[in-house]
Amino acid sequence: MNGDPVARLGRADMHIHTLASDGVSSVVEILDRVEADGFLDVIGIADHERIDAAMAARQIALDRGLRTEVVVGEEVSTRGGHLLGLFLERPVPSLRSLAWSVEAIHDQGGIAIAAHPLVPHPMCAQGFALRRLLLADHPAARPDTIETFNPTALGRYRHGAVVRFAREHDLALAGNSDAHIVDAVGSGWTTFPGRTAEDYRRAIGAGRTAHHGEFHGSREQLGVYGRQLRKYAEGWRATVSGRVRGGATGRDLGYPGGTRRPARYDPGEGSREGEA
């Protein structure tokens, strides 16, 4: 960005996946890249149906004194589409109603963002469902906003309609990468006044955000899909091998201690790739 670097807006990418779910990059790879680039001030690790890698990432960032702040998130599969829960301390159960899931996130003091919405696909919250929650007299079940920029095929398909929907309902703009590989982190992001995670949270509530990014090409997404298939095969072999040896290890969940069973990251044990 141009201008005074002290006065610039903060930048956040709050939708990043790791090896723990369907991503192909580890927590340490992501943290190393983000810290080296120096572009993002806040990131959210939001794996599907789990928060263990996100909690490990937050602790590793603290242990290493990184400048980038990590928010614990989860991409929750609801019966009404995928929902980002941010600022969590415990996982949100899947396959509940969209309203129930939003309320569960708010019960933790988190914020709820509909992921890649309005696309006619079961993973995406539909306009009628979101509109019902936004207009209902039940603030606890009202999503805080929707993801107005997502560079994947799901986000590209209805991008214009999503932006119009956000403006119609006076919602904050939220851009994220939905990254499943480290090279995609920061390909979509949100700007906001301030630099911290709490600044981001306040800006979402006040509608003082903007989204940015570039859509992915088909070749990039096919390449990630190929990496995912190889990861699943390797994970299956590691899981079977671990069970044969007594169940003490399993597939790599992408953080130090992530091959143990039960998996755990112990604060202060280090954050080098592959450490167990």
Descriptive report:
This protein has 276 residues and is an alpha/beta fold. 34% of the residues lie in helices and 16% in strands. Strands 6-5-4-3-2-1-7-8 form an eight-stranded mixed sheet, with helices on both faces. Strand 3 and strand 4 (81-86) form a beta hairpin. The radius of gyration is 18 Å and the shape is globular. The protein starts with 9 loop residues before the first strand and ends in a 32-residue tail after the last helix. Residues 271-276 have low confidence and may be disordered.
What attributes does this structure have?
276 residues, alpha/beta, single chain, 34% helix, disordered C terminus, 8 strands
State the major sheet.
8 strands, mixed
Mean pLDDT: 93
Helicity, as a percent range: 25-40%
| Rounded radius of gyration (Å) | 18 Å
- The total of beta strands comes to 8
Overall 3D shape: globular
| Helix-strand makeup class | alpha/beta
Placed side by side, the strands forming the largest sheet appear as 6-5-4-3-2-1-7-8
- How much strand? 15-25%
SSE blueprint:
Blueprint: E1 10-16, H1 27-37, E2 42-48, H2 52-64, E3 69-78, E4 81-86, H3 98-107, E5 111-114, H4 127-135, E6 145-146, H5 153-157, H6 159-168, E7 188-192, H7 197-206, E8 210-213, H8 218-244
Parallel strand pairs: 1-2, 2-3, 5-6
Antiparallel strand pairs: 1-7, 3-4, 4-5, 7-8
